[in-house]
Amino acid sequence: MINNTASLDLVEFVETQILPRYVEFDKAHNLSHVTRVIRSSMNLAKHTGADMNMVYVIAAYHDLGLSGPRAIHHLTSGKILMQDARLKRWFSPEQLKVMKEAVEDHRASASHAPRSIYGKIVAEADRDLEPETVIRRTIQFGIANYPELDTEGQWRRFCQHMDEKYSVNGYIRLWIQGSENERNLNALRSLIAEPQKMRVVFDRILAEEKA
């Protein structure tokens, strides 16, 4: 069981009917990832007074849209949640609307701030910004989606992504001040600013992932 602060019957439903769908996704968005997002979301919820059942389901559904086009996966995930009639057992239509919007708002590249505390929670929980974790997930995505690239090609793609998303000019935004993510993002930005040090870490992790 992931967290006993959500209703036991709801946890049983999610763990048997929803979470197994993540085994179909890439290493950066697999069962380990969604489990971590759930745990982080629940921990953040304790400090905000948010409804634990709502937070739990939002986190569990947030990446289900990866079964379709990645670029709109956040929107697809919201539709999947909203169209799952089984959730009416636990939630009102008003709650489901808030949950759908939270799932839609979790994406780091979203052009607007999350519309509720629930969106802020899942958006923050989805950002495991421990530097080596970020680096490994970025490399895993590159290997899975651009297998034709050689080492230098992977490095160039990696650097472009890191600069566009995580640098001081990147698009990532954090929504809960004083979080562990804030500290990790600062450490990651320091590493991005030193490409030689970053290359050493990149080469090591790339070799581990290809082994």
Task: Map the helices and strands.
Blueprint lengths: L7 H11 L12 H18 L3 H10 L11 H11 L9 H12 L12 H9 L5 H15 L5 H16 L13 H13 L2 H16 L1
Helix pairs in contact: 1-3, 2-3, 2-6, 3-5, 3-6, 4-5, 5-6, 7-8, 7-10, 8-9
Question: Which terms summarize this structure?
Answer:
211 residues, mainly alpha, single chain
Description:
By secondary structure, the protein is an all-alpha fold. Helix 1 runs parallel beside helix 3, helix 5 crosses helix 6 and helix 8 packs across helix 9. The longest helix has 18 residues. The radius of gyration is 17 Å and the shape is globular. The mean pLDDT is 92.
Q: Helix proportion of residues, in percent? A: 55-70%
Number of β-strand runs: 0
Strand portion: under 5%
Helix count, per DSSP? 10
Low-confidence stretches: none
Report the mean per-residue pLDDT as an integer.
92
Shape from CA axes?
A: globular
Radius of gyration: 17 Å
Major beta sheet summary? none
Look at the helices and sheets and give the structural class.
mainly alpha
Could you give the order of the helices and strands?
A: HHHHHHHHHH
Report how far apart the termini are. 32 Å
